[in-house]
Design a protein that fits this description.
This protein folds into 3 domains: 7-189, 3-Layer(aba) Sandwich (Rossmann fold); 191-260, Orthogonal Bundle (Helicase, Ruva Protein, domain 3); 267-356, Homeodomain-like (Arc Repressor Mutant, subunit A, Orthogonal Bundle). It contains 14 helices and 10 strands. The protein has helices spanning 25-39, 54-63, 85-90, 107-110, 126-138, 164-170, 175-181, 198-209, 219-226, 233-246, 298-316, 321-328, 332-341, 349-354; strands spanning 7-10, 44-47, 72-76, 115-119, 140-142, 149-151, 155-160, 184-187, 216-217, 252-253. Helix 1 (25-39) packs across helix 2 (54-63), helix 11 packs across helix 12 (321-328) and helix 12 packs across helix 13 (332-341). Bound molecules: adenosine-5'-diphosphate (ADP) and magnesium ion. One of its GO terms (molecular function) is ATP binding.
Amino acid sequence: MSSPRPHTVTAAGMAPAPQLSGNSLPMQALRAQIGRIARCGAPVAIRGESGTGKELAARAIHAQGARASFPFIAVNCGAIPEALMEAEFFGCRPGAYTGARHERQGLFQAAHGGSLLLDEVDDLPLAMQVKLLRVLQERRVRKLGGSADEAVDVRILCASQHGLARGVAAGTFRQDLFYRLNVIELALPPLRERRGDLQVLCEVILARLAPGQAVSLAPPVLAALAAYAFPGNVRELENVLERALAFADGGVIALDGLALPSVAGSMPLRALPPPGVPERQACLPGMALRGVAPVLPLEMYLRQAERDMIMRALVQARYHRARAARQLGLSVRQLRYRMQKLTIQEPLLDERMDDR
Ligand SMILES: Nc1ncnc2c1ncn2[C@@H]1O[C@H](COP(=O)(O)OP(=O)(O)O)[C@@H](O)[C@H]1O
Ligand SMILES: [Mg+2]
């Protein structure tokens, strides 16, 4: 099984990141705020539910600022095994640990001149928080196993779902690091609070998923989307549309291709075998009921298969994440990372207890 890539690099000159689309008042205000923030070099702490566009906002801040021609690097702090973290962030010298044969750059060196997004920064272990604070104060890093410091010039952006103050109050996030990172706060509103953006978002996403093709939504589709709570926000909308596109007939997405979870805001149980359908037949959500399963792009098939297996493990483990992770051969952090990527949400607590 391939492990998720914990970080992505956008070097200067690559294709521009997608824009933050939407004409609702909150989105207009957000874009204006990003324009102002981009001009200064201060750290920014971005807060918002999963899939609201935190990474996109960070890319926009970078792209509109003076560092645009230097790298933008995003790292998911929840996805790096703790033992590898220091080498990953600061680089390492040959022989620093077993298996470290070559000199390696860290993320800070790679982002030199540009911006580094620390995604899910509240997942950083306390020991790593101390090391990060030191780097931010001294603007110098030392490779693991190295003896000399190197100067690094990096704009730090960070993202979390609930904001960093919560971690400080809970004692899991250092207050001194909080003050370093939380200089400017940027909050991204959930999609259900800006439903007026849905149409534009659908157009933008469909143009991205099916470039050059004319795809339209049947009239009731937009109404159904507007009635749904989208716990996974724009990322979930992308998933819903990608799946719907596979079932679109003559370029029209109809209501029955939409497969929205029936209980708004709770776990999308559609990926479980429907009652009475043997698991073997229900290997992909919704498809066993359609006779001949359509051929899908492999990436999409694999994503759905991964989603299905993770959901199955969660249900069998009664949403006990550690147990589900063990069954899947993943660490809890890896499981959480994949769940976030696939916009898998656990049901609300009362449904969990209802699960017999
Ligand atoms: N306002 C928006 N306009 C267009 N696409 C968006 C918007 N917000 C989010 N997206 C898309 O939704 C997906 C999730 O966005 P991302 O920035 O990764 O969210 P987060 O980091 O908050 O989980 C990405 O594919 C992104 O391009
Ligand atoms: Mg993200």
